[in-house]
Amino acid sequence: MTWDDVLDISALALVLIGALLCLTASVGLLRFRDVPTRLHAATKPQVLGLILICIAVALAMRVWPVVAFLVPVILIQFATAPLSAHMVGRAAYRNGTIDERSLYVDELRDAQETPPAAGG
Q1: Distance between CA atoms of 101 and 31, rounded to whole angstroms?
Q2: Helix-, strand-, coil-residue percentages of the chain, each rounded to 5
Q3: pLDDT in tens, 45-81
Q4: Which of 27, 34, 71, 85 could form a disulfide with 39 if both were Cys (CB 3.0 to 4.6 A apart)?
């Protein structure tokens, strides 16, 4: 078994694990009942699955331009997934679709009760 075979098998395993993580993220979006658990399913396993697939592509292609292309993809995913989940969660809180009894700490309660001061 050569070094190329080991890299190909590793890439195959990473693609399979990444695809399974993305599949569990989509199943979690369909099966979970409330917004916070759906947000967890939409961000954590999906981001990890994409990272594993990107690493697998880099291992399979074995050229630096591919790695240089995949690094910004991963960085943008790191930046956008938590931000979008935060905004969806905050909008769900404001709309009243989150069960407030299930929250351990409600940090937004004080922010909603007191309006921001006018004029800065």
Answers
A1: 21
A2: 80, 0, 20
A3: 999 999 999 999 999 999 999 999 999 999 999 999 9
A4: 85
In a domain, 118, yes or no: no
User: How many structural domains are present in the chain?
Assistant: 1
Report the sign of the C-alpha dihedral through residues 109, 112, 114, 116, in that order.
positive
Residue 45 identity: P
Question: Residue 57 and residue 7: Cα distance in Å, rounded?
Answer: 11
Q: How confident is the prediction for the chain on average, in pLDDT? A: 87
Q: Which residues contact 100 (CB under 8 A, 6 or more apart)?
A: 106
pLDDT at 83 over 80: yes
Backbone dihedral region of 13: left (phi > 0), alpha (psi from -120 to 50 degrees) or beta? alpha
* pTM attached to this predicted model: 0.79
Please say whether the beta carbons of 21 and 77 come within 8 A. no
Residue 111 in domain: no
